[in-house]
Each structure stands twice: as C-alpha cells, then as structure tokens.
Specification:
With 550 residues, the chain is of the alpha+beta class. It is 25% helix and 20% strand. Among the domains are: 40-185, Dipeptide-binding Protein, domain 1, CATH 3.90.76; 292-514, Dipeptide-binding Protein, Domain 3 (Dipeptide-binding Protein, domain 3, Roll). A hairpin with a 2-residue loop joins strand 20 (544-545) and strand 21.
C-alpha cells in the first residue's frame, strides 16, 4: 500500500504541469462498467442514465432538490379527480439533426412525438424494462392511443386508471424521453448506438468499450438566468477503462475530470477515517458529498420455479433472517467505507425519503446468537448440513461481500463469492439466474413507491424491477391502496407497513444507505450534486478556458 501512495505522490507532482496546459472546454469521465445502449427505453441503471441524460429530454425534470420542474412541457395541470394530466409543450424544442429529417435538419417536437415515445415503452415488441412505470395508465381511455392523446401540437393528455400522486415525478425518468419516430424506425436496433434526442449534447462518435463522444447542441432550448444558451461545455468525452486503479491514476494525472463514489482502490488515499477529503489533496481536488437516495443491499431469488432458486436454502425465511443478523454493519461501514454512508438498520426505503422512519420500520442489527438460533430452528445447528450459498457480485463490491462472507462463516453459514463483470451481472440479475446477488436501488423519482415497487408481483423481472420475484397478496393489496392514496401522511404510513413486510420476510439484506461522493477537478464549476446522483452537465463549466474566465 505504501508503494501505491508513493506512486500517487509522484503522479501528483507530474500532473502539476496540467494546470499550465491549454484547457479544452471538454468534460471527461470514465465508465468502468461499460454502456450497453444509448436508447432511453432501456435506461434501467446509472451507467446508461448518465449519458442518456445528456442526449434526451422529457416532459419534466428534477432540480437539485428533487422538485419536479418544467422541461419540454412548460406547464401542466391535473384534473380534480387526479386521473387526467394535461401538459402544455414548448414550441421551440428541436430534435438533433439527422439524415432521416428533411434536409438533415432536426424538426420541432410535438405532442404526437410523446404519444409515440411513451407508447414505445409499453410496446411488448420493444420489451423495455421501464414498461412497469405505466401500470397506472388507462389504456382504454376514449380518443387516446393506449392512454396518451395529442390534443394539439403543443397539448398532450395522459389518462390514469386512478389517482397516482407520484406520477409527475415518475415522468422525470429517462424512460420517458422523447424520441423521433422516423429516426427510430429508420435505424431499427441501431438506434441504441446512434441516438437522436433533444438534449444539451448530441451524439457524435462511439467506439464501444473505447470512447463515446457527445458534442454541444447549438440549438438547445434552455438558457441560464442571464439569458445565455446552455450548455457551456463544447463536448463530453467518456472512456471505458475497466480497471479502477487505472481510472484513479487517470484522474490524478488530470486526464479525467470526475470520479464518482468510493472504491477500495482510492478510498484510503482520498478520504479520512471520518469521511472527509484527505487534506493532502485540498487545492487540487474538490469533494462534493451529500445524502444519496440509494440503498445498497443483497437480494435473494425467491421464485422456486426459476432454476437458480430451485432447492436453494435461501427459500427458507429463517436462513435469510440469520444472514441479516449475522454480520456487523457498523464495523463494515467503519473499515470498508470510512463511514461514508449510514448502516441500513431500518427498511429498504432510505434516509431522505419523507416516509423514512427508523422507529416504525425496525431493521436488523448484529446479533450472532439470534442468527445461530434461527439456523437451529431451520434444522442446521451451527450451520451443520447447510448447503453453500453463492453470492454473486461485481468487483466494485467484492470487499463488502468478502467481509460478509467472513462474518457469516463464524456462525456456520458458508458463502461462495462469485464475481461477474458489470454487463453480465446485470443481465443475470434481470433474468433470474442468481440465487443471491448484490444490488443497489437508486431512486428513479422522489417517492418511496419507487423502492417498494421492487416487491410488487406485477413487476417481476425482466419486464420490471422485482428481481427477487417476491410475491405476497397482502403486500400487493397494500401497495395498490398506497398508489391511490392522495393524502401524504396516510400514504407514508402504508409505505411503512410495506417496508416492514419486506424486513419481516427478509426478502433482502439491507447493507447501507449511501452518500453521494464526487471528486472533481478544482477548476470545474457548476457540476453540483443531488440526492439521486444524477449527472447533469448542462451547467458545468471550467473556471478558465484557454486563459479566459468562463
């Protein structure tokens, strides 16, 4: 480790010359897990959401405080009964230029484009993983196409079967981005690698697993408070270095402008034991941190009809509960995360959500004696005769999984750790091929319903986000009641009941409630942060470009 620190020091000295170089007006970051698609219909995880967020827009968007704000829709209203939303669209939003348009020039966005785009999400032939977000749509509404109606070029109506208070927030998800029908139909499957949207940056070049380049959309419709057209940057350059140590060195040498999250490779170098920036890097790097609407967890596959779960010991609730009691989350956070984040000692819904209540939703704390007693009740005293359980993860979380493996071994549970690459891992989770897997859920929109939908039986993966295939009629009925409850406090109490069921049934193993941590070059301004860790680059800029203040 000392050799690594000496090498980092040498790198820092060598990179001091970076500040004297001519600064290009480009933002550079690395995506170590790769990007499988740039089609917003498949933006199911952060690796896809970040670039999609630069290329596309929807009706509405979130600000840094997670309030729903205007975007392509400049205003909207809801009917008195809560079932009809009417959106009024801007008339100055253009798609990016493309050969499929007349003269190759991007045309104006209309309400019909949203009818096409939103119907595309629920089209079984597309098989979008976001189809579940429109479960509340009234697909039989008169004069609509599957619940969506273009009343005029700038007026869109959306019909719901019953009130759904979280619906405007749901529409901020990248799935709901507008796409041009003629381009999608012209390109077919190639739309995933040649996307056309309306966003602040447009697609320029992508050599998969090597480099993705987005360039400034000169016709972008949003302006800053002084009337300057956004974005400020000329381009975004995304690399795909798999090795996290190499990524870190690239950042330290000034070849990347941004690191997100805490990784074992650089955790101790960049962060002190109390979770603050190492003073050695002050003045060179800025650390941006705040609570994160992200729960890190381990998930059990509970569907005996799936091969990976058939005969697995995790189908036994007492075994799942023993695992939850069998390791020390406080110690895990202290030694493996430098106390960045909070141990998940309540439910699946994280701190920061209005319905979060550690008093009402009582989670698991370290209790090895209780874990051993549960194993005995399940017929495996001290774990004797208990088959090995395979926990699958990616390399980013291998240290956490190995820590849990060691702790559980002490109470008689033998875990076999299997490490997959990012893309293969996500595919296997989505298709029910892993009996026990490391997961995380970042809020798609700021309502606890988004978390609790992971356990609703209509959302079974791969079509929806219920990766555990948990199914319980009581849970489903309460979930449906919550969907139609307009009064916030009453809805929050139902959310707490739902979360308590998930904990009691030990459907998952909550690990910790995360914290947004970003390391950025000291001269990079306007990047900001938010509790959902969305990457928004339209206001990012360098404090100096080619020697001139920006």
């Amino acid at each position: 480790m000392r050799a690594l620190y000496l090498f980092i020091s040498a790198v820092m000295l060598a990179s001091c010359s970076h500040s004297t170089e001519v600064r290009k007006n480009i933002f550079r970051y690395n995506e170590s897990k790769g990007i499988p698609t740039l089609d917003p219909a498949f933006a199911r995880n952060q690796t896809i959401i970040w670039p999609v967020n630069q290329i596309f827009n929807g009706l509405v968007q979130l600000d840094e405080d997670l309030h729903v704000q205007a975007c392509i829709a400049h205003s909207w209203e809801c009917s008195q009964d809560g079932t009809v939303y009417t959106f009024h669209l801007r008339s100055d939003v253009l798609f990016h230029d493309h050969a499929s348009f007349p003269e190759g020039k991007g045309r104006r966005v209309t309400a019909s484009d949203f009818v096409y785009s939103l119907n595309r999400i629920i089209d079984p032939g597309i098989a979008s993983p976001g189809a579940w977000i429109f479960n509340a749509i009234d697909r039989q509404a008169a004069n609509s196409i599957q619940g969506f109606q273009a009343v005029a070029d700038t007026v869109l109506m959306i019909f719901l079967k019953k009130p759904f208070p979280a619906f405007p927030g749901l529409l901020t998800m990248p799935y709901c981005s507008v796409v041009p029908r003629e381009v999608v139909e012209s390109l077919g499957n190639d739309f995933r690698k040649e996307p056309v949207g309306t966003g602040p940056f447009r697609f320029r070049y992508w050599r998969e697993d090597e480099k993705l380049v987005l360039v400034k959309n000169e016709h972008y419709f949003e302006h800053d408070e002084q009337g300057n057209r956004l974005p400020y940057l000329d381009a975004v350059n995304i690399s795909f270095t798999r090795d996290k140590q190499s990524e870190f060195m690239e950042f330290m040498m000034g070849r990347l402008d941004f690191l997100s999250g805490i990784h074992a490779v650089y955790k101790d170098e960049m962060i002190t034991g109390n979770g603050s920036l190492n003073p050695d890097h002050a003045g060179k790097v800025r650390m941006i941190s705040q609570p994160y609407l992200n729960t890190e967890y381990l998930g059990f596959l509970l569907d005996p009809d799936l091969e990976a779960a058939n005969g697995s010991p995790v189908l036994e609730k007492k075994i799942r509960q023993a695992i939850n009691y069998g390791f020390d989350r406080e110690k895990m956070m202290r030694y493996l995360r430098n106390n960045v984040g909070r141990p998940a000692s309540a439910g699946f819904v994280p701190r920061g959500m209005p319905s979060f209540s550690q008093e009402t939703v009582r989670g698991y704390t370290y209790d090895p004696d209780c874990a051993r007693e549960l194993l005995s009740q399940a017929g495996y005293p001290m774990g004797e005769g208990l088959p090995e359980i395979t926990l699958t993860t990616t390399s980013d979380y291998q240290d956490l999984c190995e820590y849990i493996q060691h702790e559980l071994y002490e109470i008689g549970i033998v875990l076999n750790i299997e490490v997959n690459t990012g893309a293969a891992f996500r595919d296997r989770v989505a298709n029910g091929q892993l009996e026990f897997f490391r997961g995380s859920w970042i809020a798609d929109y700021p309502d606890a319903e988004n978390y609790l939908s992971l356990f609703y039986s209509r959302n079974f993966s791969p079509a929806g986000p219920n990766y555990t295939h948990f199914s319980d009629p009581v849970y489903d009925r309460l979930f449906e009641i919550a969907l139609g409850t307009m009064e916030d406090e009453l809805r929050y109490r139902i959310y707490q009941q739902l979360d308590s069921i998930i904990i009691a049934e030990a459907v998952i193993v909550p690990l910790y409630y995360d914290q947004v941590v970003r390391f950025v070059s000291k001269d990079l301004m306007g990047l900001g942060s938010n509790p959902m860790n969305l990457l928004s680059l339209k206001r990012a800029c360098w404090s100096e470009i080619d020697g001139d203040p920006h």
